[in-house]
């Protein structure tokens, strides 16, 4: 059987497919396959080099130019070789104004039938991380940032060329952000968005509310209500609810993210809130029998994995007593 020699356009299209896969990340065996493809024919290497250079030109364009690529392109005349068009674009790049270069790039998109806007705007890295009840985890991202996940927490991470985005789906996390002025770091949780360049801060998203606390640096926090954004410095904390943003409060910057050491810090918390927090780390074995006791207020720092010690301290601070029944500690009025 006679093997058909691929046309220049077919080789260019293969190169585009390899570039897309390369940007998504290739396993060792895939890298070996790419090298084999490049070495199989000198035209493969030429097409690859031309496409890589064009991709670099596109990456340097302003965001509004790149966004224009998502608009439908006019049908491009055929059948001239895409590689010749790439070469012409490369030679003309130094003499054409940027607007003309963008127009040439738009023509390139039509010829390739390749969604360049999606290529440039989709994340170069994306991953979900989560912890089970009673589990803790630390994740180091490719940009050098670090995320510490609390018990029963989940995040969705997406790193783009121009920004870094993390969605906190539930629970809480401590973020140690590697500074990169060209790529702001955003954390989205509930109705809140926290934006930083480089800092250490904690975000808690349990129920409908989101709390942001800053240990170092500064963080801009916005809500969905349209109210002005708040800029938090070290030691500041703010809670964002579906109804809006509450007033800033002060906390100890050193105490931000204390849950990482297994401590639960309560300041003017209700008994019901404290019990719910212990339940996030495991079965506490504590039962609140009298709903009237739920709003009793308490302060203190306790071991997250020792709810019995917390219960033993309750009668010393609140008008309650403990009653053991069926393997559970029941909290009742004194």
Please give a structural write-up:
- The chain is an alpha+beta fold and 334 residues long.
- The chain folds into 3 domains: 8-121, no CATH class; 125-255, Jelly Rolls (Sandwich), CATH 2.60.120.1440; 262-333, 3-Layer(bab) Sandwich (Phage tail protein beta-alpha-beta fold).
- Helix content is 32%, strand content 32%.
- The chain is built from 9 helices and 19 strands.
- Strand 8 (200-206) and strand 9 form a beta hairpin.
- The termini are far apart.
Looking at the structure, the CATH topology of the largest domain is Jelly Rolls
The biggest beta sheet, please?
Answer: 14 strands, mixed
Care to count the β-strands?
19
Secondary-structure element series: HHHHHHHEEEEEEEEEEEEEEEHEEHEE
The coarse overall form would be elongated
Radius of gyration: 28 Å
- Tally of discrete structural domains: 3
CATH architectural category of the largest domain: Sandwich
Terminal CA distance reads 93 Å
Residue runs with pLDDT of under 50 for 5 or more positions: 60-66, 68-116
Residue share in helix: 25-40%
Please describe the topology of this protein:
Blueprint lengths: L7 H17 L3 H13 L1 H18 L3 H6 L13 H11 L5 H15 L3 H6 L3 E6 L6 E4 L5 E4 L4 E6 L4 E13 L8 E5 L2 E5 L3 E7 L2 E8 L1 E5 L7 E4 L2 E6 L2 E2 L3 E2 L12 E8 H9 L6 E3 L8 E7 L3 H11 L2 E6 L2 E6 L1
Parallel strand pairs: 5-6, 16-19
Antiparallel strand pairs: 1-4, 2-3, 3-5, 4-5, 5-8, 6-7, 7-10, 8-9, 9-12, 10-11, 12-13, 12-14, 15-17, 18-19
């Amino acid at each position: 059987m006679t093997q058909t020699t691929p046309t220049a356009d077919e080789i260019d299209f293969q190169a585009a497919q390899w570039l897309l896969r390369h940007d998504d990340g290739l396993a060792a065996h895939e890298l070996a396959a790419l090298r084999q493809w490049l070495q199989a024919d000198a035209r493969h290497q030429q097409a690859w080099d031309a496409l890589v250079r064009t991709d670099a030109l596109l990456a340097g364009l302003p965001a509004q130019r790149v966004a224009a690529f998502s608009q439908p392109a006019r049908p491009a005349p055929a059948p001239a070789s895409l590689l010749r068009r790439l070469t012409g674009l490369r030679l003309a790049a130094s003499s054409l104004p940027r607007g003309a270069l963008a127009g040439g790039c738009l023509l390139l998109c039509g010829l390739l039938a390749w969604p360049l806007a999606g290529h440039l705007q989709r994340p170069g890295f994306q991953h979900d991380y989560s912890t089970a009840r009673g589990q803790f985890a630390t994740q180091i991202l490719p940009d050098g940032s670090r995320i510490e996940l609390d018990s029963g927490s989940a995040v969705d991470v997406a790193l783009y060329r121009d920004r870094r985005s993390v969605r906190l789906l539930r629970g809480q996390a401590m973020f140690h952000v590697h500074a990169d002025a060209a790529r702001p770091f955003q954390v989205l949780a509930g109705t809140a968005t926290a934006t930083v360049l480089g800092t250490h801060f904690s975000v808690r998203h349990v129920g409908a509310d989101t709390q942001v606390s800053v240990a170092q640096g500064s963080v801009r926090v916005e809500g969905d209500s349209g109210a002005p954004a708040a800029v938090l410095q070290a030691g500041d904390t703010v809670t964002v609810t579906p109804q809006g943003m509450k007033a800033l409060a002060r906390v100890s910057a050193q105490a931000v993210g204390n849950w990482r050491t297994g401590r639960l810090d309560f300041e003017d918390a209700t008994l019901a809130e404290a019990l719910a927090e212990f339940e996030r780390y495991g079965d506490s074995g504590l039962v609140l029998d009298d709903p009237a006791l739920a709003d009793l207020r308490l302060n203190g720092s306790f071991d997250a994995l020792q709810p019995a010690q917390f219960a033993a301290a309750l009668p010393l601070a609140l008008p309650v007593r403990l009653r053991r029944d069926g393997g559970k500690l029941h909290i009742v009025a004194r």
